[in-house]
Design a protein that fits this description.
Helix content is about 20%, strand content about 40%. The protein is of the alpha/beta class and about 80 residues long. It has a single domain, classed as Signal recognition particle alu RNA binding heterodimer, srp9/1 (2-Layer Sandwich). It has a 6-stranded mixed sheet with strand order 1-4-3-2-5-6, with helices on one face. Strand 3 and strand 4 form a beta hairpin. It is globular, with a radius of gyration of 11 Å.
Length: about 80
């Protein structure tokens, strides 16, 4: 089971240990699920889409991937 984190600062700290960050946008709900894969656990946080780019810039993981219906796409936070 994934672990849902509510605290953004804790999620950012955990991103230093992550092998990959996956972003799944849910346009209808207006949120994005950010999934942090570490060696042992999968951590999840829900972020409003309008705050997503600023949040991704703060993450310390170098590999950020957006999951779409077309397949995974490498992201660079702008």
């Amino acid at each position: 089971m994934p672990i849902e984190i509510k605290d953004r600062e804790k999620f950012i700290e955990l991103s230093a240990r992550a092998s990959e960050v996956r972003v799944v946008k849910k346009e209808k709900e207006g949120i994005a699920k950010v999934k942090l894969r570490t060696k042992r656990y999968l951590y999840i946080i829900k972020i409003p889409i309008n705050e997503l780019n600023d949040f991704l810039k703060q993450l310390k993981c170098s590999k950020i991937v957006e999951i779409t219906k077309k397949g995974p796409q490498e992201l660079t936070p702008s």
